[in-house]
């Protein structure tokens, strides 16, 4: 099979090598799948650089999220059969940027019938992260105001749709005029181009000075710093990631005097600590997809040969929505 491999660490465009490898074999508790589509995630970029908390032994095939068709089932696996279409996370070193991949059966879920292969590949991580962040960690309520940073990106676009599905008023922050209509198309009530407007002032005006009840921040850096200026009394700032590259150092005295919460979100821990909740979340998300309330924003569908270029675009912030590779 064809597979991209990392044999040394560095930027994706420099270190990815296309190789011919033997087809993976099913081990106990695992599935071998034919990759139908694999979505690019920022952790893929970080793993190429050796900067992610998970550091597979070299060489390895990246690609943490995929939609695949089961071609072999390992011993001890129940609930899945050859031919099933599944989504979930790959078991490295056999990642999704290949013609075939390996998945732990515990990390695989039935692909939502309403979604095609590309959309299904981009559904698992972003929407699970958004659902756990907004509902379990921030307890978002109907008619509250939700501010979403990087709302035209993969994680942010999912949060916008989930916020609207929950009945919240959504203010979306994007970078550049070309992304404004994208965010409006996702259902955002107000869209702020941060290159032209100060989102703090927009939030204050839109809420009569009260501020945003929940702030969904996958960016960090200045976006977090400025968010503290427009969070509501008893508001919640969700710390989702640090795409800006700078990890903020919160002023806890400010959180004290303004009475807001700083809430961390590491979705992967739920797979370890409360796996049943991940399955329950999948069922709810699948129902929302069937209703049409959720549909992953696919910015680019690329061939397997284009993995280095797609990851480079993601690393440089030149993507809208999700980048998906289809062998």
Automatic annotation (TrEMBL):
Q: Where's the Enoyl reductase (ER) domain? A: 13-325
Give the matching Gene3D superfamilies: Medium-chain alcohol dehydrogenases, catalytic domain, NAD(P)-binding Rossmann-like Domain
Q: What does the record give under GO molecular function?
A: oxidoreductase activity
A Pfam family that this protein carries is ADH_zinc_N
State the EC number(s).
Answer: 1.-.-.-
Per UniProt, the keywords (alphabetical) are: Oxidoreductase
User: Which PANTHER family does this entry report, sorted A to Z?
Assistant: QUINONE OXIDOREDUCTASE-LIKE PROTEIN 2 (PTHR43677:SF4), SHORT-CHAIN DEHYDROGENASE/REDUCTASE (PTHR43677)
Name of the protein in question:
NADPH:quinone oxidoreductase family protein
The organism's lineage is: Bacteria, Bacillati, Actinomycetota, Actinomycetes, Mycobacteriales
